[in-house]
Every structure is written in C-alpha cells, then in structure tokens.
C-alpha cells in the first residue's frame, strides 16, 4: 500500500471518528449569561432573548443535560404570579434546535411583580420540574 493510500485511509478514519464523537461527547452548560438549575441527574441553563419588559413577547433559550448526555425529550412551560394566583395569558411552545438545545416562543409577562417560571421536561417516562422567580 502506498503512502498516499495510507494517508487517505487515516484521513477518512479521523473524519469518521470526529463525526461519531460528537454524539458521545459529554454534555456541558455555559457558566456565563445563563441561569443554571439542577434536579437529580438533570441540569439546565436558561436565558431570555432580550431584556424582560411588561407586555413585550420574548423567547427563552434552554440548554439541557440529562446526566452526561444532551436532553432530547419534550419541554413545556408556564408562569404564574404567586401573589395574584394567576398565570400568563399565553401558552409557550418549544422547538428542539439540536439535542440539548431548545427555543421557547410565546412568552409574555403582562403585569409588574414576581413571576414564577415553571419548566417541565419529560423523556422516557421520567419527569423533571424546574422553577425560577423573575421580578419585573
């Protein structure tokens, strides 16, 4: 076998290893610019698409790890105002952009005060719940 053939085979092997390794890499969450929360073997990082303002729609970016792997299940969200005992007038929805990365749209806080964001994650019969308070 020629040196050129060996280099080609090594190059193809390295490329295949690189492609397959992206699916087995450990999941990690950013430390800056995100709010991080954890429950059992599930960790998430969230951030708003823009500064939160009363009456202005916003999106929520969610990064999620289940153990060492990116989460790939379903996410749902709601928000309530504990002091008023009512929630948002909208039902947000999420789209998975890639494993472990989701974008939620349809959020709008219509009053000043404390809002409790509630996120639920479901995968393979397991459920995880997170809450985070936001004051406007």
How confident is the prediction overall: mean pLDDT? 86
Low-confidence stretches: 12-24
Question: What is the element string, with H for helices and E for strands?
Answer: HEEEEEEEEEE
CA radius of gyration is 20 Å
How big a fraction of the residues is strand? over 45%
Number of helices: 1
For the sheet with most strands, the description reads:
6 strands, antiparallel
> Which overall shape is indicated by the principal axes computed on the Cα atoms?
elongated
Summarize the structure in words:
- This protein is mainly beta and 136 residues long.
- It has one helix and ten strands.
- Strand 7 and strand 8 form a beta hairpin.
- Helix content is 14%, strand content 49%.
- About 10% of the residues have low confidence.
